[in-house]
Design a protein that fits this description.
The complex is a heterotrimer of chains A (about 180), B (about 300) and C (about 210). With about 180 residues, chain A is of the alpha+beta class. Chain A has helices at about 1-10, 30-45, 100-110, 145-150, 165-170, and strands at about 15-20, 25-30, 50-60, 65-70, 75-85. Chain A has one domain (about 1-155): Beta Polymerase, domain 2 (2-Layer Sandwich), CATH 3.30.460. Chain A has a 5-stranded mixed β-sheet, with helices on one face. The longest helix of chain A has 14 residues, at about 30-45. Chain B has one domain (about 5-300). Helix content of chain B is about 70%, strand content about 0%. The chains are: A alpha+beta (about 180), B mainly alpha (about 300), C alpha/beta (about 210). Chains in contact: A-C, B-C.
Chain lengths: ~180, ~300, ~210
């Protein structure tokens, strides 16, 4: 693991390294070096298995964070490659040439977060939502409750109470 | 054969009795199956309710002419099989339209319904219907071979193609049944019978878990009701045919009920013990085991 | 609408141009008809038969399908009440919709419901069909099934036990025997309202309005 990190540091510009556990390390890299780094890890360091590709919405910093979680099946450890991309121009280089299944992940991210991956096969096809025409639903500025109330005919009478307040009102109605 | 108005009434009476017998048999066998599985099971008259319900459906849609004709073909296969052989031996009322060459006609009716169903299911347009029909046709073709050879062996043994005469030759004690006079033909025919009844292990045609219902997937309402009527009559008619050929026929209704019920239980027992064959497995099995036995039966008769 | 479903001209093997409209090729788009109940005496008998021969088409969406399976087993044995499973919409008479319905599933549910024959009954299984259940504020899960299909019986719970499912079927039987199970006719009468609701949530409507 140590030698691997040294190898990477000598070849790529790394922003930060977080050692989560003895067998899990997160590496923060700039956008340009993410795909080359993953290619290097796959081809030279035995990280042959892609566990997942996922995104998180850091709305306060106006950025999306992509995480490529890679696994080394021989030596049994994981490396997460984290990339920050801008929220306004949410595009990222495609990595489907490394693993075919990346195309599916990218299709999902395009639909749920609106992150585009130019050149990825079928990235514009609907993945789960058929004919979605609103803001991508996993973005944090999308108000899912309001959307649901506007669209899906909420049944009246559904309200939630704070349990402490509710019981107080019920059991001690005279107290202020 | 003199043909009179009364023969039509007799025929209707036979169909009516056999229909009810088939429905009750269906219910009781399902009940027995449930009890074996430690369930209470359906009510014995559930098949009646199902048929009434299907006829009481208010709407029907069409896929074309053959779609309507197919259930009729299927029912014709069942009733035809029933009406061209003697149900009760020696009874004028229940001898039906048995004639000199009825054995050949009866064999034909075995196949008739499946062919009609194939046309109708194809017009229904459902892919599962097509799969079910192709499976059904290949399986019917496979078990038809040992069945026909076995029946020919019996025809050669008794030197007749008339079922009434075959039954007559078996009268006089159970040792004169074909079961004992021609055991190889009996074994071959009884193996084919398993396929003809369409129960497990040869139920890949309907296979409710993989191709929802098989050929009748698209049939509904009254059309399905006709198919259900046939599903009651056809097995009962087949049971009577095999009883006539192999087990000395019946001279009274109680005898018929006991014999056919026992023959039916043969397929039920086998079905409970063995899981489903794939269609290639069942075709291969029919073309190896029963066919060999049937050929032996023919050869033994010849010499 | 998807590219494959659009009207287009194709060239046949003989070299002739042929206009095809795939949506209409596969389905009829005739409106559903109201089938008035027949004479009361016959109808009473027919309703008795309908109530005692419930052929269930189970639509397991996400959860709830697992509660239907035990009903076939020796412990609950729904067969003794005349409840049987029928995996084809053409022959089934009871449509059990279990669990939450996403918009994508709703499309399939509508199509399946329309393929069933009149009279047909709908059982909503689980809280999610009543008011959205725990997915009530989800961006992709409908809240009230009765805005899209006429529902005869709701079974509340998350998830209800198989016993409550049996109880729901008994309630459905009562409804049918009293002649109140006219969901199919209601659907035909208020067809425009149901279609408007369905089209409001199903954005890519790539099927005919009515596909028996």
């Amino acid at each position: 693991m140590k030698s691997l990190l040294n190898n990477i540091k000598s070849r790529f510009s790394i922003k930060d390294v977080t050692e989560q556990r003895s067998n899990l390390v997160f590496i923060d890299v700039a956008r340009e070096s993410a795909v080359p780094l993953i290619t290097y890890l796959r081809d030279y360091e035995g990280m042959t298995h892609l566990v997942l590709l996922t995104a998180a919405d850091w709305i306060e910093e106006n950025e999306f964070q992509l995480t490529y979680l890679l696994n080394n099946p021989e030596q049994k450890f994981d490396i997460g490659v984290r990339v920050r991309i801008s929220r306004e121009k949410a595009t990222m280089e495609t990595a489907h040439h490394l693993w075919e299944q990346v195309a599916t992940y990218q299709r999902e991210l395009k639909e749920m977060f609106g992150i585009d991956f130019p050149g990825s096969p079928g990235v514009d096809k609907p993945f789960i939502l058929e004919g979605w025409d609103d803001l991508p639903p996993y973005r944090r500025d999308f108000d899912t409750k309001k959307y649901s109330e506007d669209t899906y005919f909420p049944r009246p009478g559904r309200e939630s109470n704070d349990p402490a307040e509710y019981m107080k009102k019920k059991m001690y109605p005279n107290e202020k | 054969m003199d043909f009179g108005f009364k023969h039509i009434l007799y025929a209707l009476l036979t169909v009516f009795i056999v229909l009810n017998y088939g429905l009750i048999l269906q219910g009781i066998v399902r009940k027995i199956g449930a009890r074996v599985g430690r369930r209470y099971g359906i009510r014995w008259y559930q098949p009646y309710i199902d048929i009434i319900k299907n006829y009481a459906k208010r709407s029907t849609i069409t896929h074309g002419v053959m779609f309507y004709i197919a259930p009729v073909f299927r029912l014709t296969g069942g009733i035809g099989l029933l009406l061209f052989m003697p149900v009760i031996f020696g009874s004028e009322i229940f001898s039906n339209f048995s004639f000199a060459g009825d054995l050949v006609l009866v064999l034909y009716f075995q196949f008739f319904g499946v062919l009609g169903m194939a046309l109708g299911a194809a017009e229904g347009g459902h892919p599962y219907s097509a799969i079910g029909v192709s499976r059904g046709l290949s399986q019917v073709t496979a078990f038809e071979l040992p069945l026909t050879l076995g029946v020919l062996a019996i025809a050669m043994q008794y030197q007749t193609l008339n079922i009434t005469e075959i039954v007559a030759a078996q009268q006089g004690g159970f040792l004169s049944w074909t079961l004992f006079t021609n055991p190889f033909a009996t074994i071959a025919i009884m193996f084919s019978f398993l396929g003809a009844m369409g129960r497990s292990p040869f139920d890949v045609v309907l296979a409710p878990q993989e191709i929802p219902i098989g050929p009748p997937t698209e049939f509904h309402s009254g059309l399905l009701g006709v198919l259900q009527l046939n599903r009651a009559i056809f097995p009962a008619a087949k049971l009577i045919l095999f009883m006539n050929l192999l087990f000395g026929g019946a001279t009274s209704w109680p005898e018929l009920v006991v014999k056919t019920f026992l023959i039916y239980m043969w397929s039920v027992f086998v079905g409970t013990v063995f899981p489903r064959f794939r269609v290639d497995q069942s075709v291969r099995w029919f073309l190896v085991v029963p066919l060999t036995i049937a050929i032996i039966a023919i050869i033994l008769i010849r010499f | 609408m998807k590219e494959d479903f659009k009207k287009r001209t194709v060239i046949t093997p003989e070299g002739k141009p042929l206009e095809i409209d795939p949506v209409k090729d596969y389905f009829s788009d005739a409106r559903p008809k109201v089938h008035k109940p027949a004479n009361p005496v016959i109808e009473k008998f027919a309703n008795w038969a309908r109530a005692n021969s419930l052929w269930v088409l189970g639509f397991g969406t996400g959860c709830g399908a697992i509660e239907m399976r035990p009903l076939m087993t020796p412990r609950f044995d729904a067969y003794r009440y005349g409840i049987q499973w029928r995996p084809t919409p053409r022959q089934a008479s009871v449509f059990v919709i279990s669990g939450y319905l996403s918009v994508k599933t709703l499309k399939r549910v509508v199509r399946t419901y329309e393929q069933m024959q009149n009279p047909k009954f709908v059982v909503g299984l689980g809280s999610c069909t009543i008011n959205g259940g725990m997915y009530w504020d989800s961006y992709n899960t409908i809240n009230r099934l009765d805005h899209y299909l006429p529902v005869d019986v709701y079974i509340a719970g998350c998830m209800p036990r198989p016993e409550s499912l049996l109880h729901g079927f008994e309630e459905l039987k009562k409804i049918i025997k009293e002649g109140r199970g006219e969901g199919a006719n209601k659907y035909a009468e208020e067809f425009d309202w149901y279609k408007a609701n369905q089209k409001k949530v199903i954005k890519d409507w790539d099927m005919p309005d009515y596909n028996w």
